[in-house]
């Protein structure tokens, strides 16, 4: 559980995304207290279980989840999902207001989507060919591209996902995860809940997690980028949001007394271990991007919205590796223990 005085970041979510699901959180949630993290899931329609039991339908994994807990989760055969991955699926942009009592914060939540009013459902027609339909795509708050329209049948190039078991990873421009899944299902594919031996094709969006990509490569799964697939199937592609060009600055001689924050993945280290290393050099670690921050320490794959805000605020940056070397700190590898529980 995170520290009690951590500033909680409100995240607007689809109120029906987890409707009827019994969930439990284990591990530390970056930027959230346990209570605020649970409230976000409740806002999405979930019921919070107080202990691991057979009623639990989904385990949400944070950082540093206990090995004994993970072993019990695997023994019970419970579905698991990383916090960041789940939030990517259920969040909206500016939709539902956070529940009263949640603290407001300035931290950006990457690639959030705006939910539109649902279109009227067409009258059901007899099934003979793969279903025709219009994918109910959400558009970005600032941009207004047309929703992707699914065209029936196999493409002229012969490419088809009909009958294939696929998985989607990363951010799909103009669509939340459920909408992207609906589009591929309309073209006859089955969407797997986790990376497993049944998956035949991995559809990649932007900022796909390094661990996911490594696992996809390890399992020898065929991959295709969403935009390439969309072109082959005749879908209209929503342009990706331009990301601010944030240059990595030089590492300072000292961070003693400076307020800092890390964004992105620090190779070989958990976020908490990297944070403690900076604090050992005299830095104060911030829980969110705000005006008090004097230095942003960059890892790999920082979120586009985070980069936009860093550029907008004009905060100095440097890489984690350069900073550690400049300060002469000894950074021992602190990879989190491999989770044995299956991930969704």
From TrEMBL:
Segments for region (Disordered): 91-161
Biased composition (Basic residues): 127-139
Annotated Acidic residues bias: 95-121
Entry-linked Pfam families: BRCT
Span of domain BRCT: 13-83, 156-226, 250-323
Biased composition (Low complexity): 140-154
Gene3D superfamilies (alphabetical): BRCT domain (3.40.50.10190)
Protein name: BRCT domain-containing protein
């Amino acid at each position: 559980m995170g520290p009690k005085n951590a500033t909680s970041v409100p995240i607007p979510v689809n109120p029906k995304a987890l409707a009827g699901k019994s969930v439990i959180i284990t591990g530390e949630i970056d930027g959230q207290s346990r209570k605020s993290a649970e409230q976000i899931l409740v806002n999405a329609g979930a019921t919070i279980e107080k202990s691991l039991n057979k009623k639990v339908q989904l385990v949400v994994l944070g950082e540093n989840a206990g090995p004994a807990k993970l072993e019990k989760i695997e023994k019970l055969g419970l579905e698991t999902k990383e916090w960041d991955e789940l939030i990517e699926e259920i969040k909206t942009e500016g939709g539902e207001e956070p529940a009263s009592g949640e603290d407001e914060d300035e931290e950006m939540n990457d690639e959030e989507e705006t939910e539109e009013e649902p279109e009227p459902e067409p009258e059901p027609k007899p099934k003979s060919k793969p279903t025709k339909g219009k994918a109910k795509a959400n558009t970005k708050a600032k941009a207004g591209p047309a929703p992707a329209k699914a065209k029936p049948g196999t493409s002229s190039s012969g490419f088809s996902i009909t009958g294939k078991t696929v998985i989607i990873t990363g951010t799909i421009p103009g669509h939340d995860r459920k909408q992207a899944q609906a589009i591929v299902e309309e073209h006859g594919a089955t969407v797997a809940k986790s990376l497993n031996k049944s998956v035949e094709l991995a559809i990649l969006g932007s900022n796909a997690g390094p661990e996911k990509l490594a696992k996809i490569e390890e399992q020898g799964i065929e991959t295709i980028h969403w935009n390439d697939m969309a072109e082959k199937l005749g879908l209209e592609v929503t342009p990706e949001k331009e990301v601010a060009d944030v240059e990595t600055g030089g590492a300072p001689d000292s961070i003693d007394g400076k307020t800092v924050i890390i964004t992105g993945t620090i190779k070989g280290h958990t976020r908490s271990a990297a944070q403690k290393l900076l604090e050992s050099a005299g830095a104060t670690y911030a829980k969110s991007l705000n005006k008090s921050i004097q230095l942003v320490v960059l890892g790999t794959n920082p979120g586009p919205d985070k980069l936009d805000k860093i550029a907008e605020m004009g905060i100095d940056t440097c890489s984690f590796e350069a900073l550690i070397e400049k300060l002469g700190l000894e950074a021992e590898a602190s990879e989190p223990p491999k989770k044995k529980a299956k991930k969704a």
